[in-house]
Amino acid sequence: MNITALGNAVGTGDEGVFAEVIEVKSLDTLAVLGKNKLSGKIIFFNRPMDQTQIQTGHAYGMAGDQRRSGPAEAARYGAKGVVVRTLSTAFDDFPHTGSTVYTEGVKKIPAVAISTNDADRLSEMLKRNRNLKFYFETHCQMLPEVLSYNVVGQLNGTEKPDEYIILGGHLDSWDLAEGAHDDGTGVVQAIEALRTFKALGYRPKHSIRAVLFMNEENGLAGGKEYAVLASKNNEKHIAAIESDGGGFTPRGFRLDVNDAALKQIQRWSPLFQPYDIHKFEAGESGSDVEPLKDQQVNLIGLSVDSQRYFDMHHSALDVFEIVNRRELLLGSAAMASLIYLIDQYGLESNTAGTR
Ligand SMILES: [Zn+2]
Fold first, then answer.
1. Where is 298: in which H helix or E strand?
2. Total number of domains constituting the chain
3. 185 C-alpha to center of ligand 1: Å?
4. Separation of 294 CA from ligand 1 center, angstroms?
5. How far is the CA of 217 from the centre of ligand 1 (A)?
6. 216 C-alpha to ligand 1 centroid (Å)
7. Per-residue confidence (pLDDT) for residue 354, from 0 to 100
8. Which CATH number characterizes residue 97's domain?
9. pLDDT attached to residue 13
10. Domain ends where: 76, 108, 136?
């Protein structure tokens, strides 16, 4: 079976992990089975993403506890290692990684993902042979932190240069591929929006920034630091837009704003109707801009068609070749258009009380 270590996971070293496998579909089952049954075993979390969810992000959220908390929880019951069914909507042979979070004071045990096909195969094999043993070996290790940077490009405002509208995505990706959709496309779209304004000779009232955030995937250091600096430098942010759902056909925007701003932005949705990008709904924005929430910033996420994203997300399939140029550009144009409207007509600040 193809495996990938989970992000932040400890390695097994040369000796590997070799043990019987206990298959479970939920974290709650661990408490039911208890230490007697789980100690010294490999726990296999095998709850698939729910295929009936039309927004695949919801299905990802619903299945994600297995990868995020599964290893830490299994360790409480003396498990030797963890195998997680890949969080993917596709049925193929590619394992997908992503971060897992250990619990302070609980032993860190090795954890890997296997593909959806392999997960089904392992489950079948376990039905035929309860005593089946599984072996895996990983050599990952945590290296010391290094200094890194967000990258910021800016068009200076002509009327209110000290007020900012920002858009961005994140520079980092998991290492199985270059992370084209997660989140190379968000990065390119942010740069492309600024290029568009320049090419049109547009001189914005507010300063407009493309922010390429660092370290979204395993800690959000770039997003957090950006918010700290914005506060420290007294930079008033009007709105922050993130593209981190892949460079797919845009559908509209998810708005984490107060009621007044929601109504105001929704009034613009007919302008986007000719492009089929008019789904303007309340929702979560993006993890890099989230830390700005405390500063009453209107947070906005580009909504895209989500059907294919989790097929390649965090796997070796997330390469430049699969990005569609037209879909990518439509997303960038949609964000540039919304920024233009906010720049021209302003936007009420996102008062904390209404959240
Ligand atoms: Zn991402």
1. strand 298-304
2. 2
3. 10
4. 22
5. 7
6. 7
7. 42
8. 3.50.30.30
9. 96
10. 136
Ligand 1 centre from 183 Cα, in Å?
5
Q: How many CB atoms lie within 10 A of CB 104?
A: 5
What's residue 355's pLDDT?
Answer: 39
Q: Are residues 131 and 271 in the same domain?
A: no
Give 10-residue mean pLDDT values along the chain (355 residues): 96 98 98 98 98 96 98 98 98 98 97 98 97 97 94 98 98 96 98 98 98 95 98 97 98 96 96 97 97 96 98 98 98 98 89 47
Range of the domain at 122: 3-136
**Residues in CB range of 260: below 8 A, 6 or more apart:** 348
- In this structure, the answer to whether residues 118 and 191 fall within a common structural domain is no
- What spacing in Å lies between the alpha carbon of 170 and ligand 1's midpoint? 6
Residues 193 and 317 in one domain: yes
Ligand 1 centroid to residue 138 C-alpha, Å: 24
What's the gap in Å between 309 CA and the centre of ligand 1? Answer: 11
> Is there a domain that residue 142 lies in?
no
- Chosen domain end from 106, 136, 166: 136
- Report yes or no on 252 lying in a domain: yes
At residue 353, the pLDDT reads: 42
If you measure from the C-alpha of residue 300 to the centroid of ligand 1, how many angstroms do you get, rounded to a whole number?
15
Asked if residue 301 and residue 220 are part of one domain, the reply reads: yes
Q: How far is the centre of ligand 1, averaged over its atoms, from the C-alpha of 186 (Å)?
A: 8
Ligand 1: centre distance to CA 174 (Å): 9
Predicted model pTM: 0.93
CA–centroid distance, residue 271 to ligand 1 (Å): 28
Report the C-alpha dihedral over residues 276, 280, 285, 289, rounded to 10 degrees: 90
Q: Are residues 190 and 215 in the same domain?
A: yes
Amino acid at 95: P
Pick from 287, 168, 285, 166: nearest CA to 221? 287
The answer to the question of residue 141 being in a domain is no
Number of H helices and E strands in the chain, helices first, is 10, 13
Does the residue 213 lie in any domain?
A: yes
Residues 282 and 244 in one domain: yes
Query: Does residue 322 sit in helix, strand or coil?
Result: helix
Same domain, 49 and 162: no
Q: Residue 324 carries which DSSP code? A: -
Tokens of 82: 């963890």
